[in-house]
C-alpha cells in the first residue's frame, strides 16, 4: 500500500510539474527573440561590419536569425530547417541579393572549426525574463579560451541547437558566442515576444541568386 501511494505521489508530482510548465504563458513555440550583439575581437578586420543586434524568429522548431548594419543597407539572414537539416544564408546589400545553402555535411564540417566542450554548473540567472542555466564553454583546441553560456528550457522549441556547436545543450541559447566567416560574435538576449510568424520567413525568396559557400566566403573577403 505504501509503495502504491508513493508511486502515485511521484506520478502526481511529475504531472503537476509538467502541467505548470505548459500552462506558463512564457512557454511559447512561436515568436521573436531580440539579442544584443558585439564582436569578441574588436580588432578583427570584419569588426566594422559587426551588427549591434540580432533578431531571431522561431516557429515550430524553425529558426531565422537576421542581422543588419549600415542602417539596414547590408542584411544577412540565417535560416535553419531541422527537417531538411540545411542552413541557408541570405545576403542583401543594395540591389545585390544572394544566398548559399549548406547541407548537413557542410554544416558538420564548419562546426569542426568551432568545437566546444561544456562544463555544467549549478548557477542560474534570469535573462530577458527567462531563468537560464549556466555552462562554461571551452575550446578543446585552445583550453585557455573559456566563456559563459546561458540557455533556457522555458521556451517550447525542440532542439534549437541541432547541427550547431551547441547541440549538447537542450534549450534556447540566451547568452553565447558564435563564429562565422572569420568573425566571432557574442549574443545576449534582451527580450522575447510572442508573435505570429509567417511561414515565408523561413523560405528562400525566388528572387535571390543561389551561389556556393566558397562564392559567399569570397564575397565577404572582398568587402573587408
Which SSEs are present, and which pair or pack?
Elements: H1 2-23, E1 30-39, E2 53-59, E3 62-69, E4 74-81, E5 86-93, E6 96-102, H2 104-111, E7 117-127, E8 130-139, E9 142-152, E10 172-180, E11 183-194, E12 209-210, H3 213-222
Parallel strand pairs: 6-12
Antiparallel strand pairs: 1-2, 1-11, 2-3, 3-4, 4-5, 5-6, 7-8, 8-9, 9-10, 10-11
Descriptors:
about 220 residues; alpha+beta; 12-stranded mixed β-sheet; 3 helices; globular
Q: What does this protein structure show overall?
A:
The chain is globular. The chain has a 12-stranded mixed sheet with strand order 7-8-9-10-11-1-2-3-4-5-6-12. The model is unreliable at 1-20 (pLDDT under 50). It has a single domain (30-222), classed as outer membrane lipoprotein receptor (LolB), chain A, CATH 2.50.20. The chain has helices at residues 2-23, 104-111, 213-222; strands spanning 30-39, 53-59, 62-69, 74-81, 86-93, 96-102, 117-127, 130-139, 142-152, 172-180, 183-194, 209-210. By secondary structure, the protein is an alpha+beta fold. It has 3 helices and 12 strands, in the order H-E-E-E-E-E-E-H-E-E-E-E-E-E-H.
Brief write-up:
The protein is of the alpha+beta class.
Number of helices: 3
Q: Strand percentage, roughly?
A: over 45%
- Enumerate the strands of the largest sheet in spatial order, edge to edge or round the barrel: 7-8-9-10-11-1-2-3-4-5-6-12
Major beta sheet summary = 12 strands, mixed
CATH topology: outer membrane lipoprotein receptor (LolB), chain A
- For the record, the CATH class is Mainly Beta
Order of helices and strands: HEEEEEEHEEEEEEH
Q: Which secondary-structure class do the elements indicate?
A: alpha+beta
Q: How many β-strand stretches?
A: 12
Low-confidence stretches: 1-20
Rg calc: 20 Å
CATH architecture: Clam
Instruction: Write down the domain tally.
Output: 1
Helix content class: 10-25%
Amino acid at each position: 500500500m505504501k509503495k502504491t501511494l508513493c508511486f502515485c505521489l511521484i506520478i502526481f508530482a511529475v504531472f503537476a510539474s509538467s502541467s505548470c510548465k505548459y500552462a506558463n504563458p512564457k512557454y511559447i513555440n512561436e515568436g521573436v527573440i531580440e539579442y544584443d550583439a558585439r564582436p569578441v575581437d574588436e580588432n578583427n578586420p570584419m569588426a566594422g561590419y559587426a551588427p549591434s543586434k540580432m533578431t531571431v524568429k522561431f516557429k515550430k522548431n524553425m529558426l531565422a536569425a537576421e542581422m543588419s548594419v549600415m542602417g539596414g543597407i547590408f542584411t544577412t539572414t540565417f535560416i535553419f530547417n531541422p527537417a531538411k537539416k540545411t542552413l541557408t544564408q541570405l545576403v542583401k546589400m543594395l540591389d545585390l541579393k544572394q544566398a548559399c545553402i549548406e547541407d548537413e555535411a557542410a554544416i558538420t564540417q564548419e562546426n569542426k572549426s568551432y568545437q566546444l566542450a561544456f562544463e555544467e554548473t549549478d548557477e542560474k540567472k534570469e535573462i530577458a525574463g527567462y531563468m537560464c542555466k549556466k555552462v562554461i564553454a571551452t575550446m578543446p583546441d585552445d583550453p585557455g579560451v573559456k566563456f559563459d553560456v546561458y540557455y533556457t528550457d522555458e521556451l517550447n522549441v525542440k532542439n534549437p541547437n541541432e547541427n550547431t556547436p551547441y547541440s549538447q545543450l537542450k534549450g534556447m541559447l540566451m547568452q553565447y558566442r558564435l563564429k562565422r566567416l572569420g568573425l566571432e560574435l557574442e549574443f545576449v538576449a534582451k527580450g522575447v515576444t510572442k508573435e505570429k510568424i509567417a511561414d515565408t520567413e523561413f523560405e528562400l525568396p525566388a528572387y535571390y541568386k543561389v551561389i556556393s559557400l566558397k562564392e559567399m566566403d569570397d564575397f565577404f573577403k572582398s568587402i573587408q
